C-alpha cells in the first residue's frame, strides 16, 4: 500500500524549476546517486545527507515538484526514483551534463 | 578605452552559481543569443529584453558574477560575450544542453 506524491506531468516540467532544483549541492548529490542506477528506489535516509529531517524533506520536495524525482509514500518511508525518461525527453543531455560536472560521488 | 568588469576565474566558477544564473528565462535568452555566435560582443540593449534598465543590469551582473558572461565596460555601453571556453572546460556540454532545451530564439 502507498501513494505516489503529487508531481508535474512531463509537459508541465519547466526548465526554470529544474535548474533551480539542481542549483543546490545536496539536491545534485541525490540526483547523482539516483542516476548511477536509474532502476533503483532509494529511501530519503539512504543518501548520506548530513541534514536535519525537515531540511532533507524540503530538498526532496523541491526535486519532486520540479519533476526531477518521483516519490512513493510507503507510510513509514518515502522511496525516490529519478524521472530519467521525462528529463531526457524534455531536456536531453541536461541531467547527465550536470551530474558529470562534479567529482564522482562515492 | 574601457575595462573588463570583475569576474570569477575559471577555477572559481561554481556549478551552484551557474545553474542559478541559468534558472531564469531572461538570462537563458541572453546566453542562447550569445551562444549562437560565440565570437560576438553584444551590448546589453541588443537582446530584445522587455525589462527596466535596472532589472536588465541585474540579470547581466548575475551572469557575469557566475562566470557565464564577460563584460567590457566601454563607458557608454557594456559589451557582453559568452565565456564558452571556460564553461566547456568546467561543465562540458552543460550550456549547450540548456540552450538546446528551449524553443529556438529568433
Number of helices of chain A: 5
Question: What is the CATH first-level class name of chain A?
Answer: Mainly Alpha
Task: Work out the oligomeric state of the chains in this entry.
Answer: homodimer
What portion of residues of chain A is helical? 40-55%
**CATH homologous superfamily label of chain A:** Winged helix-like DNA-binding domain superfamily/Winged helix DNA-binding domain
Give a count of the beta strands of chain A, DSSP E runs of length 2 or more: 4
**Could you say what the CATH architecture of chain A is?**
Orthogonal Bundle
Taken in chain order, the helices and strands of chain A follow as: EHHEHEEHH
- The end-to-end span of chain A amounts to 32 Å
Mean pLDDT of chain A: 93
Q: Structural class of the secondary structure composition of chain A? A: alpha+beta
* Largest sheet entry of chain A: 4 strands, antiparallel
Please provide a written account of the structure.
By secondary structure, chain A is α+β, with helices and mostly antiparallel strands. Chain A has a single domain, classed as Arc Repressor Mutant, subunit A. The first copy, chain A, is 43% helix and 13% strand. Chain A has helices at residues 15-21, 25-35, 53-66, 84-90, 94-100; strands spanning 3-4, 42-43, 69-73, 78-82. A four-stranded antiparallel sheet of chain A has the order 1-3-4-2. The interface between A and B is medium-sized, with 21 and 21 residues.
Amino acid at each position: 500500500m502507498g501513494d505516489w506524491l503529487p508531481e508535474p506531468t512531463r509537459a508541465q516540467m519547466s526548465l526554470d524549476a529544474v535548474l533551480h532544483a539542481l542549483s543546490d549541492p545536496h539536491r545534485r548529490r541525490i540526483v547523482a546517486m539516483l542516476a548511477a542506477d536509474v532502476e533503483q528506489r532509494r529511501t530519503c535516509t539512504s543518501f548520506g545527507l548530513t541534514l536535519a529531517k525537515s531540511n532533507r524533506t524540503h530538498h526532496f520536495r523541491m526535486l519532486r515538484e520540479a519533476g526531477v524525482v518521483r516519490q512513493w509514500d510507503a507510510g513509514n518511508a518515502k522511496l525516490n526514483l529519478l524521472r530519467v525518461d521525462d528529463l531526457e525527453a524534455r531536456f536531453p543531455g541536461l541531467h547527465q551534463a550536470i551530474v558529470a560536472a562534479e567529482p564522482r560521488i562515492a
